[in-house]
Amino acid sequence: MWYLNLKANPKVQVQIKKEVLDLTARDATDEERAEYWPQLVTMYPSYQDYQSWTDRTIPIVVCEP
Description:
One of its GO terms (molecular function) is oxidoreductase activity. The protein is α+β, with helices and mostly antiparallel strands. It contains three helices and three strands, in the order αββααβ. It has helices at about 1-10, 30-45, 45-50; strands at about 10-15, 20-25, 60-65. Strands 1-2-3 form a three-stranded antiparallel β-sheet. The protein is globular. The model has no long low-confidence stretch (mean pLDDT about 95).
């Protein structure tokens, strides 16, 4: 549901330590996905299992200013 909420309202706030950033969320492009997916699977190996359990593409969200 968090993904659908971001699609409905892509304005987000991200806090990193004491810094709060106002950003806009969007779906990763195909090129970004090709770059980010292997990095995500390296950090979180269970993502690969999760992807294998479904026919849909697991969304990758990019947040930018």
